[in-house]
Design a protein that fits this description.
Elements: H1 3-27, H2 39-67, H3 72-89, H4 93-97, H5 102-121, H6 126-140, H7 143-154, H8 160-186, H9 191-211, H10 217-223, H11 231-243, H12 246-266, H13 269-276, H14 282-302, H15 311-331, H16 338-365, H17 372-401, H18 403-417, H19 420-423, E1 430-432, E2 435-438
Antiparallel strand pairs: 1-2
Helix pairs in contact: 2-8, 2-9, 3-6, 3-17, 5-6, 5-9, 7-16, 7-17, 8-14, 8-16, 12-15, 12-16, 12-17, 12-18, 14-16, 15-16, 15-18, 17-18
């Protein structure tokens, strides 16, 4: 026996065990979403751009309505200019992500957005402003699909609901805070200044995205494909991919029907409150804030979950809550207490928050990794199409039937749409191939 030799072997074995344990610890999944390399910067970029967009939306409304004294025709073209590029080009994003670096696409889109925003700042007439709005919306189509695909690639499954809900909290929270802050800014600066804030926000976002490219070079190279398949074949393949997931087909059908019912009356809220509270216009802003607070509250609660099971149950609950709120608004009277107004707004916000989270989480978990951008692009395209068609239809019917009748009918249609899965004869399928989970 040779004790010194045995002692050296023991030391070597202990060192090897320590290195192995350290390696296992390094390769283990992170406990927090903020420990994921590069995710904090990606989230910061998203938060800055979303905040800038809300400042921008306030500026556009004020400039068109107060500075230019635009006619209703110009105001009606604003959502059209914003949504039409989303309808036409959203489904082209997935083929782009297979050919070019995703972070660079988003960064260049942010730079172009800043340039078009500056063009909007110098626009002398509403028609020029509408042109720059359409151009800016065109380059912005890349954000949602690529954001969804990057989250899928970077975030392990146990933390994906965290990523979805944090994005939702930023988006919905900005709806509450930014209008208030923007209103304060408008008391001391011109509304065009808010446009410059948005331009600066997108420039900062672009620099952040450029700065983290090196963190994902190897991962990005693996996902790039020198595909020479014609674009229209890739678009058809995208729809084939969607229809290969029956759960997504039902969820998207419910999304379209539900969003159509919501957009039916969403633009009619000012008309509703003009009838219910003609001497208290502030009630409208209070209810809008209550909707935002309801959405933020439920998304914050869902942020504590590890995952969402039973997508159909969640989306049905969301639509039921929105339906209850709409039907409640249809029964309100000018003498109704303020508590009823705020309570219905809060309920509507809860339904909105659940709906947003459910759809985005389904996009994150059901399709394969390489199909996430494709499915997200189709979702964005369908949603934008509804935003174009539904308000025009709703405005026409409201002029005939009355605003409260329209709210009641929208709520009724939402309830009817909840039984859609029963008519489509969907088999229960697993949430993802690698993690079997029953969807009901």
């Amino acid at each position: 026996m040779h004790p010194p030799h045995d002692h050296n072997d023991c030391l070597r074995n202990e060192a090897y065990a320590n290195n192995l344990a350290r390696g296992i610890q390094t390769n283990s999944q992170p406990d927090s979403i903020w420990q994921i390399r590069g995710y904090r910067s990606l989230f910061t970029s998203y938060s800055i751009s979303v905040t800038g967009q809300w400042f921008d939306s306030i500026a556009i409304m004020v400039i068109f309505a107060y500075v230019w004294q635009s006619s209703p025709i110009y105001l009606g073209f604003i959502p059209f200019a914003l949504a039409l590029p989303q309808v036409l080009f959203s489904q082209l994003v997935a083929p782009l992500t297979r050919r070019f670096n995703k972070l660079r696409i988003m960064a260049f889109a942010d730079i172009l957005t800043a340039c078009f925003t500056i063009g909007l700042f110098f626009s002398p007439h509403p028609w020029f402003a509408l042109l720059f709005l359409a151009l800016r919306s065109t380059v912005n189509v890349v954000h949602f699909p690529i954001q969804q695909e990057l989250v899928r690639q970077l975030v392990p499954e146990p933390l994906r609901l965290k990523a979805v809900t944090w994005n939702g909290l930023v988006s919905q929270g900005a709806k509450i805070i930014v209008p208030f802050v923007g209103g304060l800014f408008l008391t001391i600066v011109a509304p065009q200044t808010l446009l410059l804030l948005n331009a600066v926000a997108f420039v900062i976002s672009a620099f952040i995205l450029f700065s983290i490219q090196h963190l994902f070079q190897d991962q990005m190279k693996k996902t790039l494909s020198p595909s020479t398949k014609p674009i229209f074949k890739e678009l058809r393949a995208g729809w084939t991919t969607l229809f290969s997931h029956p759960v997504l087909v039902v969820l998207f059908s419910l999304l379209v029907v539900g969003l159509f019912c919501v957009q039916f009356v969403d633009s009619q809220f000012p008309i509703l409150f003009r009838e219910l509270a003609p001497t208290e216009p502030q009630r409208l802003t209070w209810v809008i804030s209550a909707i935002g607070i309801g959405a933020v509250t439920i998304i914050f609660i869902l942020n504590k979950f590890k995952q969402m099971n039973h997508f159909f149950a969640w989306i049905s609950l969301a639509q039921a809550l929105i339906a209850v709120a709409f039907i409640g608004f249809s029964f309100l009277q000018p003498s109704s207490p303020l508590f009823f107004f705020l309570g219905l707004g809060f309920i509507c916000g809860i339904g909105t928050g659940i709906s947003i989270t459910t759809i985005n989480y389904a996009i994150q978990t059901i399709p394969a990794d390489e199909d996430v951008a494709t499915i997200a692009g189709i979702s964005q395209s369908l949603s934008s199409l509804v935003i174009i068609v539904a308000p025009l239809t709703g405005g026409f019917l409201t002029s005939i039937l009355g605003v409260q009748v329209m709210f009641g009918l929208s709520g009724l249609f939402l309830i009817i749409s909840m039984i859609l899965p029963l008519f489509l004869n969907i088999k229960k399928t697993s949430k993802s191939p690698s993690h079997p989970q029953q969807i009901r």
